[in-house]
Amino acid sequence: MDAPAISRIVPLLEYLDLAGIAVFALSGAVLAAVKRQTLVTFIFFAITTAVGGGTVRDVLIRAPVFWLHDNSTILMCVAAALAVWFTPASLWKGRTLLWLDAVGLAAYATYGAAKALAFGVAPLPALGLGVLTACVGGIVRDLLAGETTILMRPELYVTAAALSAALMVGLLALGLAAPVAGALAALVGFLLRGAAIWRGWRLPGYRR
Amino acid sequence: MDAPAISRIVPLLEYLDLAGIAVFALSGAVLAAVKRQTLVTFIFFAITTAVGGGTVRDVLIRAPVFWLHDNSTILMCVAAALAVWFTPASLWKGRTLLWLDAVGLAAYATYGAAKALAFGVAPLPALGLGVLTACVGGIVRDLLAGETTILMRPELYVTAAALSAALMVGLLALGLAAPVAGALAALVGFLLRGAAIWRGWRLPGYRR
Amino acid sequence: MDAPAISRIVPLLEYLDLAGIAVFALSGAVLAAVKRQTLVTFIFFAITTAVGGGTVRDVLIRAPVFWLHDNSTILMCVAAALAVWFTPASLWKGRTLLWLDAVGLAAYATYGAAKALAFGVAPLPALGLGVLTACVGGIVRDLLAGETTILMRPELYVTAAALSAALMVGLLALGLAAPVAGALAALVGFLLRGAAIWRGWRLPGYRR
Predict the structure, then answer these.
(1) pTM of the predicted model, to two decimals?
(2) Which residues of chain B have a CB within 8 Å of the CB of C120?
(3) Which chain A residues are Cβ-neighbours of C71 within 8 angstroms?
(4) Closest residue on chain C to A162 (Cα)
(5) Which residues contact B134 (CB under 8 A, 6 or more apart)?
(6) ipTM, 2 decimals?
(7) Lesser CB count within 10 Å: N end or C end of chain B?
Protein backbone atom coordinates (compact mmCIF):
# COMPACT_ATOMS: atom_id res chain seq x y z
CA MET A 1 0.00 0.00 0.00
CA ASP A 2 1.44 3.40 -0.87
CA ALA A 3 1.93 6.19 1.65
CA PRO A 4 -1.06 8.39 0.61
CA ALA A 5 -3.34 5.35 0.95
CA ILE A 6 -2.01 4.75 4.44
CA SER A 7 -2.36 8.39 5.43
CA ARG A 8 -6.07 8.33 4.52
CA ILE A 9 -6.37 5.44 6.97
CA VAL A 10 -5.21 7.22 10.10
CA PRO A 11 -8.40 9.25 10.68
CA LEU A 12 -10.31 5.95 10.65
CA LEU A 13 -8.32 4.86 13.66
CA GLU A 14 -8.83 7.88 15.89
CA TYR A 15 -10.85 5.76 18.33
CA LEU A 16 -7.60 4.03 19.26
CA ASP A 17 -5.96 7.37 19.99
CA LEU A 18 -8.89 8.50 22.14
CA ALA A 19 -8.87 5.19 24.02
CA GLY A 20 -5.16 5.57 24.69
CA ILE A 21 -5.58 9.13 25.98
CA ALA A 22 -8.51 8.28 28.24
CA VAL A 23 -7.10 5.18 29.90
CA PHE A 24 -3.55 6.45 30.30
CA ALA A 25 -4.96 9.65 31.84
CA LEU A 26 -6.93 7.53 34.30
CA SER A 27 -3.89 5.38 35.05
CA GLY A 28 -1.79 8.47 35.77
CA ALA A 29 -4.44 9.83 38.12
CA VAL A 30 -4.78 6.47 39.87
CA LEU A 31 -1.04 6.39 40.55
CA ALA A 32 -1.29 9.94 41.94
CA ALA A 33 -4.05 8.68 44.25
CA VAL A 34 -1.91 5.77 45.41
CA LYS A 35 0.82 8.30 46.19
CA ARG A 36 -1.66 10.54 48.11
CA GLN A 37 -0.98 13.53 45.88
CA THR A 38 -3.00 16.73 45.44
CA LEU A 39 -5.61 17.38 42.74
CA VAL A 40 -3.13 19.47 40.77
CA THR A 41 -0.65 16.61 40.74
CA PHE A 42 -3.47 14.28 39.67
CA ILE A 43 -3.97 16.49 36.61
CA PHE A 44 -0.24 16.72 35.93
CA PHE A 45 0.18 12.95 36.08
CA ALA A 46 -2.94 12.39 33.95
CA ILE A 47 -1.65 14.71 31.21
CA THR A 48 1.94 13.50 31.10
CA THR A 49 0.93 9.84 31.12
CA ALA A 50 -1.72 10.34 28.45
CA VAL A 51 0.22 12.50 26.01
CA GLY A 52 3.77 11.22 26.63
CA GLY A 53 3.73 8.38 24.12
CA GLY A 54 1.97 10.24 21.33
CA THR A 55 4.16 13.28 21.84
CA VAL A 56 7.38 11.33 21.38
CA ARG A 57 5.88 9.63 18.31
CA ASP A 58 4.84 12.93 16.74
CA VAL A 59 8.18 14.61 17.42
CA LEU A 60 10.12 11.70 15.92
CA ILE A 61 8.01 11.45 12.76
CA ARG A 62 7.88 15.26 12.52
CA ALA A 63 4.10 15.49 12.75
CA PRO A 64 2.45 18.44 14.53
CA VAL A 65 2.16 17.40 18.18
CA PHE A 66 -1.41 16.12 18.44
CA TRP A 67 -2.62 17.82 21.64
CA LEU A 68 -1.40 21.38 21.06
CA HIS A 69 -3.89 22.83 18.65
CA ASP A 70 -7.16 22.51 20.51
CA ASN A 71 -8.23 22.26 24.11
CA SER A 72 -9.94 18.86 23.98
CA THR A 73 -7.10 16.53 25.00
CA ILE A 74 -6.26 18.58 28.07
CA LEU A 75 -9.95 18.74 29.01
CA MET A 76 -10.19 14.93 28.75
CA CYS A 77 -7.21 14.57 31.05
CA VAL A 78 -8.65 17.02 33.57
CA ALA A 79 -11.92 15.08 33.47
CA ALA A 80 -10.07 11.82 34.12
CA ALA A 81 -8.25 13.36 37.08
CA LEU A 82 -11.53 14.68 38.54
CA ALA A 83 -13.18 11.30 38.02
CA VAL A 84 -10.53 9.52 40.05
CA TRP A 85 -10.51 12.27 42.70
CA PHE A 86 -14.27 12.33 43.31
CA THR A 87 -15.43 8.75 42.82
CA PRO A 88 -15.14 6.06 45.51
CA ALA A 89 -11.59 4.79 45.87
CA SER A 90 -12.83 1.20 45.72
CA LEU A 91 -13.39 1.67 41.99
CA TRP A 92 -9.67 2.20 41.45
CA LYS A 93 -8.20 -0.31 43.88
CA GLY A 94 -6.23 -3.46 43.25
CA ARG A 95 -5.27 -4.17 39.68
CA THR A 96 -7.24 -1.36 38.04
CA LEU A 97 -4.04 0.47 37.17
CA LEU A 98 -2.68 -2.60 35.38
CA TRP A 99 -5.85 -3.10 33.32
CA LEU A 100 -6.09 0.56 32.29
CA ASP A 101 -2.46 0.46 31.34
CA ALA A 102 -3.11 -2.69 29.26
CA VAL A 103 -5.83 -0.99 27.20
CA GLY A 104 -3.62 2.04 26.62
CA LEU A 105 -0.67 -0.14 25.71
CA ALA A 106 -2.52 -2.05 22.98
CA ALA A 107 -4.34 1.00 21.58
CA TYR A 108 -1.24 3.18 21.39
CA ALA A 109 1.00 0.44 19.95
CA THR A 110 -1.49 -0.10 17.12
CA TYR A 111 -2.24 3.55 16.41
CA GLY A 112 1.41 4.57 16.79
CA ALA A 113 2.57 2.04 14.20
CA ALA A 114 -0.16 3.11 11.75
CA LYS A 115 0.60 6.81 12.14
CA ALA A 116 4.33 6.20 11.68
CA LEU A 117 3.64 4.32 8.41
CA ALA A 118 1.42 7.20 7.31
CA PHE A 119 4.37 9.56 7.77
CA GLY A 120 6.68 7.48 5.59
CA VAL A 121 8.53 5.48 8.25
CA ALA A 122 9.89 2.06 7.14
CA PRO A 123 8.12 -1.09 8.46
CA LEU A 124 10.56 -2.17 11.19
CA PRO A 125 11.07 1.31 12.66
CA ALA A 126 7.26 1.77 12.46
CA LEU A 127 6.88 -1.37 14.57
CA GLY A 128 9.54 -0.04 16.95
CA LEU A 129 7.84 3.34 17.13
CA GLY A 130 4.53 1.66 17.98
CA VAL A 131 6.20 -0.14 20.86
CA LEU A 132 8.19 2.84 22.05
CA THR A 133 5.26 5.22 22.09
CA ALA A 134 2.98 2.67 23.78
CA CYS A 135 5.56 2.30 26.54
CA VAL A 136 6.54 5.96 27.07
CA GLY A 137 3.36 6.95 28.92
CA GLY A 138 3.77 4.23 31.52
CA ILE A 139 7.52 4.80 31.82
CA VAL A 140 7.13 8.54 32.43
CA ARG A 141 4.32 7.92 34.94
CA ASP A 142 6.43 5.43 36.86
CA LEU A 143 9.64 7.48 36.76
CA LEU A 144 7.85 10.62 38.00
CA ALA A 145 6.36 8.68 40.88
CA GLY A 146 9.67 7.03 41.73
CA GLU A 147 8.34 3.54 40.95
CA THR A 148 10.25 0.77 39.21
CA THR A 149 9.14 1.06 35.59
CA ILE A 150 6.48 -1.37 34.48
CA LEU A 151 8.93 -2.56 31.82
CA MET A 152 10.86 -4.54 34.39
CA ARG A 153 7.86 -6.56 35.62
CA PRO A 154 8.27 -10.24 34.86
CA GLU A 155 5.04 -10.73 32.89
CA LEU A 156 4.72 -9.99 29.19
CA TYR A 157 4.59 -6.24 28.62
CA VAL A 158 6.82 -4.99 25.80
CA THR A 159 5.95 -8.23 24.00
CA ALA A 160 2.23 -7.41 23.99
CA ALA A 161 2.93 -3.96 22.54
CA ALA A 162 5.21 -5.50 19.92
CA LEU A 163 2.50 -8.00 18.97
CA SER A 164 -0.09 -5.23 18.40
CA ALA A 165 2.34 -3.09 16.43
CA ALA A 166 3.60 -6.01 14.32
CA LEU A 167 0.06 -7.15 13.54
CA MET A 168 -0.89 -3.64 12.48
CA VAL A 169 2.10 -3.30 10.15
CA GLY A 170 1.50 -6.79 8.77
CA LEU A 171 -2.28 -6.57 8.33
CA LEU A 172 -2.05 -3.20 6.57
CA ALA A 173 0.62 -4.66 4.28
CA LEU A 174 -1.78 -7.53 3.48
CA GLY A 175 -4.36 -4.93 2.44
CA LEU A 176 -6.89 -5.27 5.29
CA ALA A 177 -9.23 -2.32 5.83
CA ALA A 178 -7.75 -0.02 8.47
CA PRO A 179 -10.58 -0.15 11.05
CA VAL A 180 -10.60 -3.94 10.91
CA ALA A 181 -6.81 -4.23 11.10
CA GLY A 182 -6.71 -1.72 13.95
CA ALA A 183 -9.41 -3.41 15.99
CA LEU A 184 -7.81 -6.82 15.46
CA ALA A 185 -4.26 -5.72 16.27
CA ALA A 186 -5.30 -3.84 19.41
CA LEU A 187 -7.54 -6.67 20.62
CA VAL A 188 -4.90 -9.40 20.23
CA GLY A 189 -2.22 -7.34 21.98
CA PHE A 190 -4.65 -6.52 24.79
CA LEU A 191 -5.58 -10.18 25.19
CA LEU A 192 -1.92 -11.16 25.46
CA ARG A 193 -1.25 -8.48 28.06
CA GLY A 194 -4.47 -9.49 29.82
CA ALA A 195 -3.32 -13.10 30.01
CA ALA A 196 -0.05 -11.84 31.45
CA ILE A 197 -1.89 -9.90 34.18
CA TRP A 198 -4.53 -12.54 34.89
CA ARG A 199 -2.53 -15.73 34.53
CA GLY A 200 0.98 -14.40 35.04
CA TRP A 201 2.08 -15.43 31.52
CA ARG A 202 5.70 -14.65 30.93
CA LEU A 203 8.51 -15.30 28.53
CA PRO A 204 11.53 -17.17 29.87
CA GLY A 205 14.09 -14.80 31.39
CA TYR A 206 17.79 -14.98 30.65
CA ARG A 207 19.58 -17.64 32.71
CA ARG A 208 23.27 -18.29 32.32
CA MET B 1 -5.19 39.07 20.62
CA ASP B 2 -4.11 37.54 17.30
CA ALA B 3 -1.00 35.39 16.89
CA PRO B 4 1.26 38.02 15.24
CA ALA B 5 0.49 40.43 18.08
CA ILE B 6 1.47 37.76 20.58
CA SER B 7 4.63 36.88 18.70
CA ARG B 8 5.81 40.49 18.86
CA ILE B 9 5.44 40.19 22.62
CA VAL B 10 7.89 37.38 23.22
CA PRO B 11 11.07 39.45 22.80
CA LEU B 12 9.74 41.77 25.52
CA LEU B 13 9.82 38.86 27.93
CA GLU B 14 13.35 37.66 27.37
CA TYR B 15 14.29 38.69 30.91
CA LEU B 16 12.14 35.78 32.13
CA ASP B 17 14.02 33.36 29.91
CA LEU B 18 17.39 34.65 31.12
CA ALA B 19 16.26 34.42 34.74
CA GLY B 20 15.16 30.83 34.19
CA ILE B 21 18.47 29.88 32.60
CA ALA B 22 20.59 31.50 35.30
CA VAL B 23 18.81 30.13 38.34
CA PHE B 24 18.23 26.64 36.99
CA ALA B 25 21.92 26.49 36.01
CA LEU B 26 22.85 27.46 39.56
CA SER B 27 20.43 24.91 41.01
CA GLY B 28 21.92 22.15 38.86
CA ALA B 29 25.43 23.07 39.96
CA VAL B 30 24.36 23.20 43.62
CA LEU B 31 22.96 19.67 43.41
CA ALA B 32 26.23 18.54 41.81
CA ALA B 33 28.03 20.09 44.81
CA VAL B 34 25.74 18.27 47.26
CA LYS B 35 26.61 15.05 45.42
CA ARG B 36 30.39 15.82 45.58
CA GLN B 37 30.77 15.71 41.81
CA THR B 38 33.60 17.03 39.63
CA LEU B 39 33.70 20.42 37.88
CA VAL B 40 32.80 18.80 34.56
CA THR B 41 29.71 17.24 36.10
CA PHE B 42 28.85 20.64 37.62
CA ILE B 43 28.79 22.06 34.10
CA PHE B 44 26.80 19.12 32.73
CA PHE B 45 24.18 19.43 35.46
CA ALA B 46 24.02 23.23 35.05
CA ILE B 47 23.38 22.94 31.31
CA THR B 48 20.82 20.14 31.38
CA THR B 49 18.86 21.73 34.22
CA ALA B 50 18.90 25.16 32.61
CA VAL B 51 18.03 24.21 29.05
CA GLY B 52 15.88 21.12 29.66
CA GLY B 53 12.54 22.88 30.03
CA GLY B 54 12.99 25.34 27.19
CA THR B 55 14.31 22.62 24.91
CA VAL B 56 11.22 20.44 25.38
CA ARG B 57 9.02 23.49 24.83
CA ASP B 58 10.80 24.48 21.62
CA VAL B 59 10.75 20.95 20.21
CA LEU B 60 7.02 20.57 20.90
CA ILE B 61 6.02 23.92 19.40
CA ARG B 62 8.50 23.38 16.52
CA ALA B 63 10.54 26.47 17.25
CA PRO B 64 14.33 26.47 16.65
CA VAL B 65 15.88 25.22 19.91
CA PHE B 66 16.83 28.42 21.69
CA TRP B 67 20.39 27.64 22.86
CA LEU B 68 21.86 26.15 19.68
CA HIS B 69 22.59 29.14 17.50
CA ASP B 70 24.97 31.15 19.63
CA ASN B 71 27.40 30.43 22.43
CA SER B 72 25.87 32.64 25.12
CA THR B 73 23.56 30.18 26.91
CA ILE B 74 26.31 27.61 27.32
CA LEU B 75 28.69 30.32 28.58
CA MET B 76 26.11 31.41 31.18
CA CYS B 77 25.81 27.82 32.40
CA VAL B 78 29.58 27.40 32.61
CA ALA B 79 29.76 30.65 34.58
CA ALA B 80 27.08 29.39 36.98
CA ALA B 81 28.97 26.14 37.50
CA LEU B 82 32.23 28.01 38.17
CA ALA B 83 30.45 30.35 40.58
CA VAL B 84 29.19 27.46 42.68
CA TRP B 85 32.56 25.65 42.49
CA PHE B 86 34.71 28.60 43.59
CA THR B 87 32.58 30.52 46.09
CA PRO B 88 32.18 29.52 49.76
CA ALA B 89 29.85 26.57 50.20
CA SER B 90 27.97 28.40 52.92
CA LEU B 91 26.38 30.56 50.20
CA TRP B 92 24.66 27.52 48.73
CA LYS B 93 23.69 25.60 51.84
CA GLY B 94 20.30 24.82 53.29
CA ARG B 95 17.33 25.86 51.24
CA THR B 96 19.19 27.77 48.53
CA LEU B 97 18.43 25.06 46.00
CA LEU B 98 14.70 25.35 46.71
CA TRP B 99 14.67 29.13 46.32
CA LEU B 100 16.63 29.10 43.07
CA ASP B 101 14.31 26.45 41.77
CA ALA B 102 11.31 28.60 42.77
CA VAL B 103 12.53 31.56 40.69
CA GLY B 104 13.20 29.33 37.70
CA LEU B 105 9.82 27.65 38.07
CA ALA B 106 7.85 30.91 37.97
CA ALA B 107 9.93 32.50 35.22
CA TYR B 108 9.82 29.49 32.92
CA ALA B 109 6.11 28.79 33.47
CA THR B 110 5.29 32.37 32.45
CA TYR B 111 7.67 32.60 29.51
CA GLY B 112 6.85 29.09 28.31
CA ALA B 113 3.12 29.81 28.17
CA ALA B 114 3.70 33.08 26.29
CA LYS B 115 6.05 31.52 23.76
CA ALA B 116 3.60 28.64 23.15
CA LEU B 117 0.81 31.14 22.44
CA ALA B 118 3.12 33.01 20.09
CA PHE B 119 3.57 29.77 18.11
CA GLY B 120 -0.13 29.22 17.70
CA VAL B 121 -0.81 26.78 20.54
CA ALA B 122 -4.37 26.81 21.98
CA PRO B 123 -4.89 28.35 25.47
CA LEU B 124 -5.20 25.19 27.60
CA PRO B 125 -2.26 23.38 25.99
CA ALA B 126 -0.27 26.64 26.28
CA LEU B 127 -0.97 26.61 30.00
CA GLY B 128 0.05 22.94 30.12
CA LEU B 129 3.21 23.65 28.17
CA GLY B 130 4.14 26.44 30.58
CA VAL B 131 3.81 24.01 33.48
CA LEU B 132 5.55 21.15 31.75
CA THR B 133 8.53 23.18 30.65
CA ALA B 134 8.88 24.85 34.04
CA CYS B 135 9.02 21.41 35.65
CA VAL B 136 11.30 19.59 33.19
CA GLY B 137 14.54 21.26 34.35
CA GLY B 138 14.03 20.22 37.95
CA ILE B 139 12.83 16.75 37.01
CA VAL B 140 15.85 16.05 34.82
CA ARG B 141 18.21 17.41 37.48
CA ASP B 142 16.67 15.19 40.15
CA LEU B 143 16.49 12.07 37.97
CA LEU B 144 20.12 12.40 36.91
CA ALA B 145 21.20 12.72 40.52
CA GLY B 146 19.02 9.81 41.61
CA GLU B 147 16.88 12.01 43.87
CA THR B 148 13.12 11.75 44.31
CA THR B 149 11.74 14.34 41.91
CA ILE B 150 10.71 17.66 43.42
CA LEU B 151 7.22 17.03 42.00
CA MET B 152 6.47 14.56 44.77
CA ARG B 153 7.24 16.96 47.64
CA PRO B 154 4.13 17.73 49.66
CA GLU B 155 4.21 21.53 49.34
CA LEU B 156 2.71 23.39 46.39
CA TYR B 157 4.95 23.02 43.36
CA VAL B 158 3.13 22.17 40.15
CA THR B 159 0.33 24.40 41.43
CA ALA B 160 2.62 27.43 41.55
CA ALA B 161 3.76 26.82 37.99
CA ALA B 162 0.15 26.39 36.88
CA LEU B 163 -0.79 29.68 38.56
CA SER B 164 1.94 31.60 36.70
CA ALA B 165 1.09 30.00 33.37
CA ALA B 166 -2.67 30.49 33.81
CA LEU B 167 -2.22 34.14 34.79
CA MET B 168 -0.04 34.74 31.76
CA VAL B 169 -2.56 33.19 29.36
CA GLY B 170 -5.40 35.07 31.05
CA LEU B 171 -3.73 38.47 31.34
CA LEU B 172 -2.61 38.43 27.72
CA ALA B 173 -6.16 37.49 26.68
CA LEU B 174 -7.40 40.48 28.67
CA GLY B 175 -5.06 42.69 26.65
CA LEU B 176 -2.45 43.59 29.27
CA ALA B 177 0.93 44.75 28.00
CA ALA B 178 3.30 41.78 27.82
CA PRO B 179 6.04 43.04 30.19
CA VAL B 180 3.42 43.89 32.83
CA ALA B 181 1.55 40.61 32.41
CA GLY B 182 4.83 38.69 32.50
CA ALA B 183 6.14 40.40 35.63
CA LEU B 184 2.81 39.94 37.40
CA ALA B 185 2.34 36.30 36.45
CA ALA B 186 5.88 35.33 37.40
CA LEU B 187 5.74 37.27 40.69
CA VAL B 188 2.47 35.73 41.85
CA GLY B 189 3.60 32.19 41.03
CA PHE B 190 6.89 32.80 42.81
CA LEU B 191 5.11 34.15 45.89
CA LEU B 192 2.89 31.07 46.04
CA ARG B 193 5.87 28.73 45.75
CA GLY B 194 7.73 30.90 48.27
CA ALA B 195 4.87 30.54 50.77
CA ALA B 196 5.02 26.79 50.18
CA ILE B 197 8.75 26.72 50.99
CA TRP B 198 8.64 29.18 53.86
CA ARG B 199 5.35 28.27 55.53
CA GLY B 200 4.89 24.76 54.21
CA TRP B 201 1.65 25.67 52.39
CA ARG B 202 0.14 22.67 50.71
CA LEU B 203 -3.01 21.52 49.02
CA PRO B 204 -4.89 18.67 50.65
CA GLY B 205 -3.63 15.28 49.49
CA TYR B 206 -5.91 12.48 48.39
CA ARG B 207 -7.32 10.47 51.34
CA ARG B 208 -9.72 7.64 50.83
CA MET C 1 35.16 26.16 7.38
CA ASP C 2 31.71 27.04 6.07
CA ALA C 3 28.59 24.99 6.73
CA PRO C 4 28.32 23.30 3.30
CA ALA C 5 31.93 22.14 3.61
CA ILE C 6 31.14 20.65 7.01
CA SER C 7 27.99 18.99 5.76
CA ARG C 8 29.94 17.17 3.04
CA ILE C 9 32.09 15.81 5.85
CA VAL C 10 29.41 13.98 7.80
CA PRO C 11 29.06 11.02 5.40
CA LEU C 12 32.80 10.44 5.80
CA LEU C 13 32.23 9.82 9.50
CA GLU C 14 29.44 7.28 9.29
CA TYR C 15 31.75 4.60 10.72
CA LEU C 16 31.52 6.46 14.04
CA ASP C 17 27.74 6.36 13.93
CA LEU C 18 27.72 2.63 13.15
CA ALA C 19 30.21 1.95 15.95
CA GLY C 20 28.01 3.88 18.39
CA ILE C 21 24.90 1.95 17.36
CA ALA C 22 26.56 -1.46 17.58
CA VAL C 23 28.26 -1.08 20.94
CA PHE C 24 25.42 0.75 22.66
CA ALA C 25 23.02 -1.93 21.39
CA LEU C 26 25.29 -4.60 22.89
CA SER C 27 25.58 -2.68 26.16
CA GLY C 28 21.79 -2.40 26.42
CA ALA C 29 21.39 -6.14 25.81
CA VAL C 30 24.11 -6.94 28.36
CA LEU C 31 22.30 -4.92 31.03
CA ALA C 32 19.09 -6.78 30.16
CA ALA C 33 21.01 -10.03 30.70
CA VAL C 34 22.31 -8.84 34.06
CA LYS C 35 18.69 -8.08 35.00
CA ARG C 36 17.53 -11.58 33.81
CA GLN C 37 15.09 -10.11 31.31
CA THR C 38 13.35 -11.77 28.35
CA LEU C 39 14.53 -11.74 24.74
CA VAL C 40 11.95 -9.08 23.87
CA THR C 41 13.26 -6.83 26.62
CA PHE C 42 16.81 -7.49 25.35
CA ILE C 43 15.73 -6.07 21.98
CA PHE C 44 13.91 -3.13 23.57
CA PHE C 45 16.94 -2.21 25.68
CA ALA C 46 19.30 -2.65 22.71
CA ILE C 47 17.23 -0.30 20.54
CA THR C 48 16.62 2.44 23.10
CA THR C 49 20.24 2.48 24.22
CA ALA C 50 21.57 2.50 20.67
CA VAL C 51 19.28 5.11 19.16
CA GLY C 52 18.58 7.30 22.22
CA GLY C 53 21.54 9.64 21.84
CA GLY C 54 21.31 10.11 18.08
CA THR C 55 17.56 10.58 18.27
CA VAL C 56 17.81 13.44 20.75
CA ARG C 57 20.58 14.99 18.62
CA ASP C 58 18.54 14.76 15.42
CA VAL C 59 15.38 16.16 17.03
CA LEU C 60 17.27 19.12 18.50
CA ILE C 61 19.10 20.03 15.29
CA ARG C 62 15.91 19.35 13.27
CA ALA C 63 17.44 16.62 11.13
CA PRO C 64 15.33 13.65 9.99
CA VAL C 65 15.66 11.05 12.76
CA PHE C 66 18.37 8.75 11.46
CA TRP C 67 16.86 5.29 12.10
CA LEU C 68 13.34 5.80 10.78
CA HIS C 69 13.73 5.60 7.03
CA ASP C 70 15.17 2.15 6.55
CA ASN C 71 15.18 -1.11 8.47
CA SER C 72 18.94 -1.49 8.96
CA THR C 73 19.42 0.17 12.37
CA ILE C 74 16.65 -1.89 13.96
CA LEU C 75 18.07 -5.07 12.39
CA MET C 76 21.52 -4.29 13.84
CA CYS C 77 19.98 -3.87 17.29
CA VAL C 78 18.05 -7.13 16.99
CA ALA C 79 21.27 -8.86 15.93
CA ALA C 80 23.08 -7.42 18.96
CA ALA C 81 20.33 -8.64 21.28
CA LEU C 82 20.43 -12.12 19.75
CA ALA C 83 24.23 -12.20 20.01
CA VAL C 84 24.13 -11.51 23.73
CA TRP C 85 21.23 -13.95 24.26
CA PHE C 86 22.81 -16.92 22.45
CA THR C 87 26.55 -16.64 23.12
CA PRO C 88 28.21 -17.81 26.35
CA ALA C 89 27.60 -15.42 29.22
CA SER C 90 31.29 -15.44 30.08
CA LEU C 91 31.87 -13.23 27.01
CA TRP C 92 29.81 -10.46 28.56
CA LYS C 93 30.82 -10.71 32.19
CA GLY C 94 32.72 -8.31 34.38
CA ARG C 95 33.61 -5.00 32.84
CA THR C 96 32.41 -5.70 29.32
CA LEU C 97 29.50 -3.32 29.74
CA LEU C 98 31.86 -0.50 30.74
CA TRP C 99 34.17 -1.04 27.76
CA LEU C 100 31.34 -1.21 25.24
CA ASP C 101 29.89 1.93 26.74
CA ALA C 102 33.31 3.62 26.44
CA VAL C 103 33.52 2.96 22.70
CA GLY C 104 29.98 4.23 22.17
CA LEU C 105 30.66 7.29 24.28
CA ALA C 106 33.69 8.40 22.28
CA ALA C 107 32.18 7.58 18.89
CA TYR C 108 28.88 9.34 19.54
CA ALA C 109 30.48 12.42 21.14
CA THR C 110 32.65 12.89 18.06
CA TYR C 111 29.99 12.17 15.44
CA GLY C 112 27.33 14.13 17.33
CA ALA C 113 29.48 17.27 17.47
CA ALA C 114 30.29 17.01 13.75
CA LYS C 115 26.67 16.47 12.71
CA ALA C 116 25.56 19.42 14.86
CA LEU C 117 28.12 21.67 13.15
CA ALA C 118 26.89 20.43 9.78
CA PHE C 119 23.39 21.59 10.70
CA GLY C 120 24.52 25.10 11.57
CA VAL C 121 24.87 24.81 15.35
CA ALA C 122 27.39 27.20 16.97
CA PRO C 123 30.67 25.71 18.31
CA LEU C 124 29.96 25.60 22.04
CA PRO C 125 26.43 24.19 21.70
CA ALA C 126 27.84 21.70 19.16
CA LEU C 127 30.31 20.56 21.80
CA GLY C 128 27.47 20.34 24.31
CA LEU C 129 25.32 18.40 21.88
CA GLY C 130 28.15 15.93 21.30
CA VAL C 131 28.37 15.33 25.04
CA LEU C 132 24.63 15.20 25.61
CA THR C 133 23.96 12.76 22.83
CA ALA C 134 26.89 10.54 23.82
CA CYS C 135 25.47 10.34 27.34
CA VAL C 136 21.75 9.89 26.57
CA GLY C 137 22.02 6.24 25.51
CA GLY C 138 23.67 5.20 28.75
CA ILE C 139 21.37 7.37 30.85
CA VAL C 140 18.20 5.93 29.31
CA ARG C 141 19.57 2.37 29.64
CA ASP C 142 20.35 2.91 33.31
CA LEU C 143 17.09 4.71 34.14
CA LEU C 144 14.99 2.00 32.48
CA ALA C 145 16.80 -0.67 34.44
CA GLY C 146 16.54 1.27 37.70
CA GLU C 147 20.32 1.62 38.02
CA THR C 148 22.16 4.70 39.26
CA THR C 149 23.14 6.51 36.05
CA ILE C 150 26.68 6.01 34.88
CA LEU C 151 27.07 9.80 35.06
CA MET C 152 27.39 9.62 38.84
CA ARG C 153 30.28 7.14 38.83
CA PRO C 154 33.40 8.72 40.27
CA GLU C 155 35.72 8.05 37.31
CA LEU C 156 35.95 10.35 34.33
CA TYR C 157 32.90 9.92 32.11
CA VAL C 158 31.32 13.16 30.94
CA THR C 159 34.86 14.53 30.74
CA ALA C 160 35.89 11.91 28.19
CA ALA C 161 32.88 12.71 26.03
CA ALA C 162 33.64 16.43 26.31
CA LEU C 163 37.24 15.80 25.26
CA SER C 164 36.18 13.95 22.10
CA ALA C 165 33.57 16.55 21.19
CA ALA C 166 35.90 19.49 21.88
CA LEU C 167 38.70 17.92 19.82
CA MET C 168 36.31 17.35 16.93
CA VAL C 169 35.07 20.95 16.96
CA GLY C 170 38.64 22.23 17.30
CA LEU C 171 40.29 20.00 14.70
CA LEU C 172 37.62 20.73 12.09
CA ALA C 173 38.05 24.46 12.79
CA LEU C 174 41.79 24.00 12.20
CA GLY C 175 40.98 22.51 8.80
CA LEU C 176 41.90 18.85 9.37
CA ALA C 177 40.33 16.30 7.02
CA ALA C 178 37.16 14.91 8.58
CA PRO C 179 38.10 11.22 8.73
CA VAL C 180 41.43 12.08 10.37
CA ALA C 181 39.87 14.52 12.82
CA GLY C 182 37.11 12.02 13.62
CA ALA C 183 39.44 9.10 14.21
CA LEU C 184 41.73 11.23 16.38
CA ALA C 185 38.97 12.80 18.47
CA ALA C 186 37.23 9.47 19.10
CA LEU C 187 40.49 7.69 19.92
CA VAL C 188 41.68 10.27 22.45
CA GLY C 189 38.31 10.38 24.22
CA PHE C 190 38.21 6.57 24.32
CA LEU C 191 41.73 6.41 25.76
CA LEU C 192 40.81 8.86 28.51
CA ARG C 193 37.67 6.90 29.41
CA GLY C 194 39.72 3.69 29.17
CA ALA C 195 42.26 5.05 31.65
CA ALA C 196 39.35 5.93 33.91
CA ILE C 197 38.02 2.36 33.77
CA TRP C 198 41.39 0.63 33.94
CA ARG C 199 43.28 2.86 36.34
CA GLY C 200 40.40 4.56 38.10
CA TRP C 201 41.44 8.03 36.88
CA ARG C 202 39.17 10.68 38.22
CA LEU C 203 38.87 14.42 38.55
CA PRO C 204 38.81 15.83 42.07
CA GLY C 205 35.28 15.96 43.48
CA TYR C 206 33.82 18.99 45.23
CA ARG C 207 34.85 19.19 48.89
CA ARG C 208 33.74 22.01 51.08
Answers:
(1) 0.90
(2) 69
(3) 122-125
(4) C40
(5) B20, B53, B104, B105, B106, B108, B109, B112, B161, B164, B165
(6) 0.86
(7) C
